[in-house]
Amino acid sequence: MRYVVLTIKYDIMVNYKGIEVKSKNVLVVNMNEGNRQSAPGRLELVRTFLNTWRIPNQTRVLTEFLLTQEDVERFQTEHFPHLTRTVARDTVIQLRSDLRETIAPGKGDISELNSWLRLYPFVARIGYSRTESESEVCYQPIEEQRDLCAELLVIVVQAIERKMWSRLKACPDCRLVFYDYTKNVSKVWCGMLANGPQGRACGSIAKVRHWRKQHQTKKDNR
Q: How far apart are the first and last CA of the chain?
């Protein structure tokens, strides 16, 4: 059994010996099949949102999962059931595109998200952390603008503040968005192994391609 333990300071320790570390000051995330790429806490909602556009392993074709306004509303109902306001599909798709741009290989300028914050200003509140007695700043959308985009942006801003956003990455091959739990934030591919029927060993495939290219270059130079 493999676990990643996130401390309250968001340091990362990987336990390979099957020992489950339990403490009131840590969050234990099971890193089995379904959770190898999942993000901690509510950031997983953003990762799920970003993965409504990707290249499924079954087809290897760019696929849009939010084709209609009804698809957007269905996503909202499933993941944010407390919301009553709806937002136009074009706006949702643009937000997804801009968020993906900040985590793409090479990464865009995250300050570009400031234009979204001007559209969706927040209310900042001071509260207490659940895991420690220190105070923390919490953000809430203005009630009149509380919709899907506002809720997603709140999570993104909190992830940036907590130094977690840089760990959200998009695989350069299948475009799947995953959370990088490595200590030095060095993971590039979604995975080296398929880990299930919907998985894809993009890292291994890339290494094989690189080896073949080098091998062919050596043959051509003989």
A: 48
For the chain, the domain total comes to 2
**92 and 124 co-located in one domain:** yes
State the residue range of the domain holding 76. 35-184
Per-residue model confidence (pLDDT) at position 49: 98
**Mean pLDDT of successive 10-residue stretches along the chain, which has 222 residues:** 37 38 38 66 97 81 94 98 96 97 82 94 81 76 92 96 93 90 89 51 54 53 64
For residue 139, what are the β-bridge partners? Answer: 124
Residue 203: CB partners within 8 Å, gap ≥ 6?
A: 188, 189, 190, 191, 192
Q: What count of residues does the chain have?
A: 222
Q: What is the pLDDT of residue 69?
A: 98
The contacts of residue 123 (CB under 8 Å, 6+ apart) are 139, 140, 141, 142
Residues 64 and 167 in one domain: yes
Closest CA to 162 of 3, 27, 24, 19: 27
Strands (E), 16-153: 26-30, 53-54, 63-64, 122-128, 135-141
Q: Indicate the pTM of the whole model.
A: 0.72
